[in-house]
Each structure stands twice: as C-alpha cells, then as structure tokens.
Write a structure and sequence with these properties.
Layout: H1 17-22, H2 34-41, E1 47-51, H3 61-72, E2 78-82, H4 85-94, E3 99-104, H5 111-118, E4 122-126, H6 132-140, E5 144-148, H7 153-162, E6 166-167, H8 172-179
Parallel strand pairs: 1-2, 2-3, 3-4, 4-5, 5-6
Length: 180
C-alpha cells in the first residue's frame, strides 16, 4: 500500500510506473527502481528483497529479479524472501547462487519440509511464532532463521531468547544498539 510510505494511496500494483515515479517517498525522494537501489547499496550492506505476489501476481517477476541481480553483480549480496513459496522455487532455479527464504506467519508443523518444497535456504517468521526449538531444527537442517517485525521491547526480548540469525524491523535506529 502506497499510503504507508509515500504521499500516494492504494495498492502499488494498480499504478503505472510513471505514476509511481511522481510520488514523494519522503523529503522529495522518489521511489527507486531496483537497479537504483542495488547501485546505492552495492559493496556497502547486504540487502533483503521481499517479493510481493499476493493478491496481485506479477508475471515474470522471478526472471526480472534474477536478471537484475545478475546484471548488478549482486547475487551474493542479496537475499530474496517471499510469502509466495512457489515463486521462490522458480527463482532458485533461475538464480541458484542467491540466498532465498520463505516467509510464514505460522508455527509450521514441519518447517524443514516447507524449506525443501520451496528449495529455500531459510525461514523468516513473525516473532510470536518463533521458538528456540524451531531455530535449532532449521539450523540443524542447514537453514537460517529470520524473525519479523521486531519493533518493541516484547518482540526484542523474545527474539533474543530464541536467537535467530537475522532480525527485521521498521526501527533500525532503535534496535541496532540493543542487539549489539
């Protein structure tokens, strides 16, 4: 939804590229295209790209994303995550060197089967669904564990207790000093 991060309204997928580029994403900044973002962060920080395929699917997204990461030479600096697990399976076929992760908002009965079905390298789940046993189970199978959205003290305390590999937040300035 454009309302959360720009002066626009409604779903991103219902706007044209030209309409999106006219929006203000804060202090006069325009919404960057992926190539601009990749150039900005290259050799500086890792990047996690979350694909959005629900409810509006974007045909060819996997191919376009794989090509953009390859063209930028950033296949080892970027991870791709998604709630849409079939997209990840197809993306991994196109870009086997890119780290991928499934996003899930539940406590799966068999997280390893989910990872294998999507051919994914890791699992990212809501902090309230995470537990230390799931972290150990995924790690024992060679996967990584991410947790979202750690934006308050309760989420931080539980995340520290579970000890995931990565933490996602909307408040990096607040969270970073508390994790180190």
């Amino acid at each position: 939804m454009l309302d959360a991060t720009t002066n626009g309204k409604g779903p991103v997928g219902l706007q044209t590229f030209a309409e999106l580029r006219r929006l203000d994403a804060g202090r006069g900044e325009k919404i960057p295209v992926l190539a601009e973002l990749l150039e900005l962060v290259q050799d500086k920080v890792g990047l996690v790209v979350e694909t959005k395929q629900n409810p509006i699917p974007y045909a060819g997204l996997e191919e376009k994303l794989a090509r953009a990461l390859e063209d930028a030479g950033m296949t080892e600096q970027v991870s791709v995550i998604s709630f849409h697990h079939p997209l990840l399976r197809k993306f991994k076929e196109l870009a086997p060197g890119v780290n991928t992760g499934i996003i899930d908002a539940s406590r799966p009965a068999d997280p390893i089967a989910m990872l294998r079905a999507a051919n994914a390298d890791g699992l990212s789940t809501h902090f309230a669904m995470l537990d230390p046993e799931m972290v150990e189970e995924v790690r024992a199978a060679g996967g990584g564990v991410g947790v979202w959205t750690v934006d308050d003290e309760i989420a931080l305390a539980w995340s520290k207790h579970c000890s995931p590999d990565s933490v996602f937040t909307n408040r990096p300035g607040w969270l970073a000093p508390l994790l180190n």
